[in-house]
Amino acid sequence: MDLAVPHEWWGVLSTVQRSSRGAFLAGGALRDLRTRRPIKDVDIFVGPDANTGLLDVSLHFKGYRKTTIANAAYFSDDESLQLATVYEKDGQLPVNIIQLSRPMSLHEGLERLDWGFCQIGTDGGNIIATEAHEKDIRQSTMTLCRCQSEDQYVRSMERAKRLRQKFVNWRVVVPEQFERFIPPSYSILAPLT
Questions:
Q1: pLDDT digits (tens, 9 = 90+) for 153-190
Q2: Among residues 130, 153, 175, which one ends one of the domains?
Q3: Which domain holds residue 187?
Q4: Do 166 and 114 share a domain, yes or no?
Q5: Can you name the residues that pair with 45 across neighbouring β-strands?
Q6: Strand-pair partners of 115
Q7: Phi and psi of 139, rounded to 5°?
Q8: Are residues 18 and 49 in the same domain?
Q9: Is 110 in contact with 26 (CB distance < 8 Å)?
Q10: pTM of the model
């Protein structure tokens, strides 16, 4: 896949990889770049082995400052996410460094993203997209691909509500296998209307 990824993103990813081998950029930034939507921020995933001190210093020398640190449980009940740190630089998009609780390949990381159209990433080489991503892009859909609890379902639907502000005419698809996580008082598309 050929996308004109901003040079700054490649530089930040390369810098992060010096403190965490196997770091990868994935999710919304590449999705929005591909679909020509406004980009909010850039997510880079790092392993539990990430040298956070080196990461802080390295990004500082690139002009980024650490602004926020949050337990990943704040935005996801995915047990593989541990910590999220936001770095900002004037004139650039915020960079979210998301620390994983265990080592994970780019392919595995993509499969863990809840919405199919978000399953696109790079480790600095080629840009890789899952079949679910490609299908959603072709069909202008947002397909729920990962859900393990009622809380995660509600969180994903709230996220879908925000995403529909960018993807106005895209249809939300909830496969039957996830319907068991719909809370009893919750319509399948309640937060989307």
A1: 998 999 999 999 999 999 999 999 999 999 887 765 55
A2: 130
A3: 137-192
A4: no
A5: 24, 98
A6: 144
A7: -100, 0
A8: yes
A9: yes
A10: 0.90
